[in-house]
Amino acid sequence: MSDIIQLLPDAIANQIAAGEVVQRPASALKELLENAVDAGATQVQVVVKESGKQLIQVIDNGKGMSATDARMSFERHATSKIRSSADLFSIRTFGFRGEALASIAAVAQVELKTRQAESELGTLIQIEGSEVKKQEPFAGNIGTSVSMKNLFFNVPARRNFLKSNPVEMRHIVDEFQRVALSYSEIGFTLFQQDLEVYSLTPGKLSHRIVGIFGKNYQGQLVPCEELTPHVNVKGYIGKPENAKKTRGEQFFFVNNRFIKSSYLNHAVSSAFEGLLQPDQHPFYVLFLEIDPSHIDINVHPTKTEIKFDDERTIYAVIRSAVKQALGAHHVVPSLDFSLDVNFNEKWDKDPEKKAQVDREYSYKSFNTPEFKQASTSGWEKLFEGTQQGTRNINRATPSDETEVLTFESRANPDEATEFIPRPTETESTGATFQVELSYVVAQMSAGFLIIDQQTAHERILYERYLRQLKLAQGTSQQCLFPPTINLGPSDFALVMDIMPELHSLGFMVSEFGKDTVLIQGVPADIQVKNEKELFEGLLEQYKHFKSELSLDTRENLARSLARKSSLKKGQKMNSQEMETLVGQLFACQTPNYGMGGNKTFVKLDLSSIHSFFGK
Ligand code: ADP
Ligand code: MG
């Protein structure tokens, strides 16, 4: 048999390699921006059309390339940045793989114009699908301009996989922000079609942060610095009271390279411990400087992951740097009184809340007339819309005295179901009360249920919101004073993207000028004090879940809104509210578990109680 193994032609090899480097327009932008920075540019201009699907052009005033280098730059593994494998351990530049231009040219139509200061004429190269179409001298500015047109023009399958324009634009803005943050001494502009999105003048980091995230950040930044022999940490953290507004913008740069690390992120959040509510995220932009021989940036092709040889030390240094920054700027004391740092502490100060157990003996069943009257207003609104579900609850009828606890659904006696308890309805034995304002204890005829109120309520709301999203039946309440929210380009793009889902839930949101939305209505079943805060919190939660769990839009929105609008621990409930909670929980499809998989309740049945006493 003849030999059948052949080397792939370069164009195909490049196209395959491109899959790793260029997943979407934003990844190409990242590479092009990094090349501009590596070339020593002081001014970088980005032009984007159709969210990069049609065009991404990066123009720099860096050192340019010779005619030969210009041609070479499109070869795979062609780089001016490392020469030997030893250099891999002392990388200070962004690039080093020499793959980016080759990959981009394999899957797009690229035009490169470049000129070095010392030569009068520069070079123009047009290349499409790895094929050079034109190379000629050209007269133009010093520096380099790379235009990438019609990304994936020759790989329709991948082009079809690109997301909507708002989504791709959000990725582009994210990449742009990261590079712009890490080089505040370089001027950057970003144009989308003909609109200027950013124009960032060279300057200090604090100036750059304000330029990117808006004037609100002025006065909210706390400098943070810790210099050790092993690692230097420098940058800014946001004041805790501003955490909500910052929408979780969090940036780590290692030797100026943006990285993601949940481990190091934890170091920062743990330094903020006690200063933030669980759903708040501190703002930070922190730069770590470390000898390149102690890190390996080669872990991940798109290079946002990094390996440190001593991660624990770095964790400790970051934590201490942030703690010190918070302390040195008196951020901590000023907050002790304004935040519910610790529920126990608060109770000690507040005698009304000191009682750790709230007893409520007047048990009423869900369908008593009192309950129905009460259910129309106030806190009860939280539970509206799931009433129809309560009919599925198995109820003991008064004649059921002998029946202790049924585990099966009465409607389908044959169907084996999971344990779904039902509270008894006998006034004499019924008692529902709160423990630590966190758990609801409901009496059943053969023991107790201990219900985690927040987890349970999240489950109830989550199922409700999923239903509303599916049927697009969410109803709105109008805002008295419709707020406008300036979101910044990236969040704005996100909101545009999930607009239909937001409407299904009952948010009446509309575009209101550049990067701004108007909130005219919010879901009717949520009691809102501050619509702006609700909406921003929802977005924040959404983004958090998206990065943590990569959920689909509906699932994520349902979870986010449930998390945002659920009742929290520490919230006092009256007996009706507790009973409604119990009833609605057990009307859920999956009453046993919260959104995150935690148990919603535990059962303390008679046999366990007996066993406590050795009976
Ligand atoms: P890498 O950046 O990993 O070296 P690239 O494919 O991104 O690989 O670029 C290949 C080479 O082309 C770089 O090493 C550099 O010498 C040159 N180059 C790319 N972009 C520019 C630019 N904007 N200005 C000057 N030189 C550039
Ligand atoms: Mg590069």
Automatic annotation (TrEMBL):
A molecular-function term among this protein's GO annotations: mismatched DNA binding
One cellular component (GO) term of this entry: mismatch repair complex
Residue ranges constituting the DNA mismatch repair protein S5 domain according to the UniProt record: 209-327
PROSITE patterns, per database record: DNA_MISMATCH_REPAIR_1
Residues covered by the MutL C-terminal dimerisation domain: 431-573
InterPro entries recorded: DNA_mismatch_repair_CS, DNA_mismatch_repair_MutL, DNA_mismatch_S5_2-like, HATPase_C_sf, MutL/Mlh/PMS, MutL/Mlh/Pms-like, MutL_C, MutL_C_dimsub
Stated family: Belongs to the DNA mismatch repair MutL/HexB family.
Function comment: This protein is involved in the repair of mismatches in DNA. It is required for dam-dependent methyl-directed DNA mismatch repair. May act as a 'molecular matchmaker', a protein that promotes the formation of a stable complex between two or more DNA-binding proteins in an ATP-dependent manner without itself being part of a final effector complex.
Protein name: DNA mismatch repair protein MutL
Species per Swiss-Prot/TrEMBL record: Algoriphagus antarcticus
